[in-house]
Inverse folding.
């Protein structure tokens, strides 16, 4: 499934189910937002047992709302050189490869109320700046719940429990880590590296 439109209303997927989409080959990844400024939305849908769930290639302002994306062979979501995506109320679960379930090279994204659960490796890996992570849940991922490389991100009111290494790992400058709950992660609950970061009002166990 390949989306090429720059008008968001021209690609709106609602209440759909996709099974065994794609391959790990260019142009065949699964549901692909393919090209500079490509827009669109997927909501209330299920994507399962596919090579990739959703692939964002230079897209702008893609929206994923209320979806279940699980058991991807490679990445649940892969975003390359994209911007301004919104991820709201999705379940990302059971990614089977030893790669991040969501691997995001993007700026200005918003993640609100998502669940990243039981993935083989990292729940979400962001390399970029200006993102907001608010009220998301990271549980029982095989490595780190949320790993961020970048500056000026806000990570607030998220929950990190039972991830098999760290709950939250931030590398960068001028990030804000506020009012998160992190317990019983097997190594470190919260770890922040860089300068000018604000870490405040988090509730974490002694390993943080």
């Amino acid at each position: 499934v390949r989306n090429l439109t720059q008008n968001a209303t021209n690609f709106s997927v609602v209440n759909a189910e996709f099974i065994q989409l794609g391959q790990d080959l260019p142009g065949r990844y699964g549901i692909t937002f393919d090209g500079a400024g490509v827009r669109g939305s997927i909501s209330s849908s299920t994507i399962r047992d596919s090579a990739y769930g959703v692939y964002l290639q230079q897209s702008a302002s893609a929206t994923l709302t209320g979806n279940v994306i699980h058991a991807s062979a490679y990445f649940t979501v892969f975003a390359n050189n994209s911007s301004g995506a919104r991820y709201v109320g999705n379940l990302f679960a059971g990614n089977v490869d030893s790669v991040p379930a969501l691997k995001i090279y993007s700026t200005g994204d918003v993640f609100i109320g998502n669940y990243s659960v039981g993935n083989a490796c990292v729940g979400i890996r962001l390399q970029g700046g200006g993102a907001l992570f608010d009220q998301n849940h990271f549980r029982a991922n095989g490595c780190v719940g949320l790993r961020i490389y970048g500056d000026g991100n806000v990570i607030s009111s998220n929950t990190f429990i039972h991830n098999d290494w760290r709950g939250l790992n931030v590398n960068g400058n001028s990030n804000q880590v506020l009012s998160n709950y992190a317990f019983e992660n097997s190594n470190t609950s919260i770890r922040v590296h860089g300068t000018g970061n604000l870490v405040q009002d988090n509730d974490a166990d002694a390993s943080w």
